[in-house]
Every structure is written in structure tokens, then in C-alpha cells.
Request: fold
Amino acid sequence: MGLTKARVEEKTDGSGDYHQNVYHYNSIAKDNTNSIRNNDNDNEDFDDGVQPSRHSYQASPFRPRILFSPPPTFPDDHVLYSNYNYKICSIKGKGLGMIAARHIKRGECIVAEAPLMSTIFDENWQRLSNTLDGIVSRLSPKDQEIFLSMYDSGLYHPSRSSVGIMMTNALPLRRGTNVSGIFPHICKINHSCSPNTHHTWNDRVKKEMVHATRDIQRGEEISTSYLLSLLKSRYFRRAELLRKFNFECKCSACTRHDVSESDARRLEILLRKQYL
Reply:
């Protein structure tokens, strides 16, 4: 997840509309919940039960027009950005992440961030690739660096691509919509099956809001959930994360010694919710 400069090799012209520092463009899969991060952490329940292949690409074949250099690596605890609430730094075994810079109380707003760019999803992958590559080639060097600092799961193309970065990191702009955005800082927050924050889109101020769901100590990692449901067993949570984001979760909930007891408690909560 390190910062990197783009190595742009655009072969043909792209297209995209620019308005007030937010880039709008069409493309991507019909079921965007299958590809992008969850929003509104209300944790709807699903269960496909399929253990995915780590190298099975989810997109139809497409040819990127921009080749991205691999991101550089950083030493542990290397700080790239900091403010009163948090710092973005390199975390051992995770790449970049967000760390609390002070004691944060439950209910506090940690981040309120407007999107760098937003998307409307459709089914045409080549059009998505062409449009995104055209947009990235016209970004300012600073905005290119922000976009290219995002993680690419490698599930959409063998090389780092704008499609891979967008599909791995985009957050929906309110529940049930097919419009999603990239957020420079919020997209750096790593996943946990026991997250300490809740994030949601605020349509009034046009920003993504991250609030603490419990007290967070100074120096503690700020985490969120990438999943629609946290009430499934570890097996199904890990399978979903592997299928969508190409990593095996090693959060505290997935590595605890009493994971079977934790799974049983989650199942009990799920059953209670279904019968309410």
C-alpha cells in the first residue's frame, strides 16, 4: 500500500468529465457489492460457502492502457501523514494503515472526507479500463500519487491497473446505490472482523464519515469492516475476504484461541436478528 508515482503510457485518448475536483465516469460490474467494500456497516447476511481461488480473475479480459509501477515498500512505523486524530503509516505485515494519534472516545468522528473521484458502475470492463486510464493520465501528479498509493488486490488483472485499484478500494456513496468513491485517507483503513469504527456516507455534506464504535487508545490501529456481514463464522468471513480482496484475515477475531466459541456467539446473534 505504499505511495508511488504513476508510470503513464497512454496509447489512445481517454474520456471523462471533470467537475469540482471529483472525477465522474461510467463502468464496472452490475453487482457492485460483489466487488467493492461495504458501506454503512449494517452487516447484511450472506453465505455462499465457496472457497475461492486466490488467482481467479473476477473481471472479463481487458487491456489497460496505463502501466503502473509497483509501489515502494516502507520501513515499519514510517509515517506518511499525521493530524490531530490519526496518522497514516506503514504497519508490519499490512502495508499502510491508520493509527490513532490520541485517545478517541466512542462516538467521536475520526475522519470526514470528500471523495477524490466517484464511479457509476456498469458491466463493460474494457470501457471501464479505458475511461479510468484516461482519467488517471489527466490527474495532477499529487492526485495520481494518491490514487496509486491504493492497494490493488490483483484479482482483476495480472498487472497493477486502475480497475484493480478502483474495485479493491471504492466505497459506495450511501446504501443501495451503484455510485462509489475513492477516499485518500479512509481507503487506508485496514479490515478487522472486530472493527473499532463505523463508516457511512453523509449525503448532506457529501462526505464519508468514520466514527468510533468504542474507545480507541492512542497508538491503536483504527479498523473497519470490508464485509456485509460479520456474523458468519471465521471460515466464511475469510473466504469472502479472499474472494473479494485476495488476503487471508489475521485480525484478532480470526486468530483468537477460542474462535469456535466466537463463531457460536456470532451465530446466536445472527439467529436472534432473523427472528426479531
Notes: The radius of gyration is 18 Å.
